Amino acid sequence: MKRNDPHLESTTLPLESKRGDRSAGCPEAQNMDTGSIVHIDYDLYDAGNEKLIETTREDVAKEHEVHDENRTYEPMIAIIGDGRLIAGFEAHLETAEAGKDYEFDIEPEDAYGARDQNNIETIGQNVLMRSVKDPSTLAIGAPVEIGGRTGVLQFLSAGRARIDYNHPLAGVTLRYNYNIAKVIEDREERVSTLLNMNTGRDDFEVEFDGDDLTVTVPEEMAYDQNWAYAKFSLVRSLRENLGAQTVIFREVHAPRVVDEEE
Predict the structure, then answer these.
(1) Is the pTM for the entire model greater than 0.90?
(2) What values do phi and psi take at 97, rounded to 5?
(3) Which pLDDT band, with edges at 50, 70 and 90, does 1 fall under?
């Protein structure tokens, strides 16, 4: 589960579950290397009520009657030790083994923290109405954005509104069932995976010359304003996780072919 994403935010915790009788096995000697790129199948539950929060497995979603036909169920891709996951999950992954099933709990302090009453505010209804683009979308339990902060509307009555800015999973003990389904070993595949994670595209061409790397960029990317910023993050990640030295991003602009009229 990743930070700032309640369904993935796609975590420091003892490496054994605090509910040891529920653990499918404690990670042992063979640690996962920092920088490993892995595919993870997981089910995430609220440990307090056993409610399924998120899953990468279609059969589990159907079993719990939360299946989404518009979604593709597939393993989450993560980089071990890069700090994008909540602390408790991150710590457990670092000593996990590929192919083994694990179940363990993460207390709130190693997930999304305790609920903080200071993050619950009451404002005037007029302030709320001025802050939302479409007042007809307002509903109790629905997200709202006020002054650049996103919260949940808890109460609306008598000219007052109460907004909860805590993370939706704050105060929740999380239970993970997971399995590292694949560790990506091929160097070029690792590069392609990093590129896909950062851009959502899988049509880059990748070539190594020793430790120097050339990436041929799809032509349309040259016109994407976000690409200019994404490159800096990618270079750092490629060097830290794959040992790349010189990184060249190559743009190819082929001539336009105009069909001749008959």
Answers:
(1) no
(2) -120, 140
(3) low
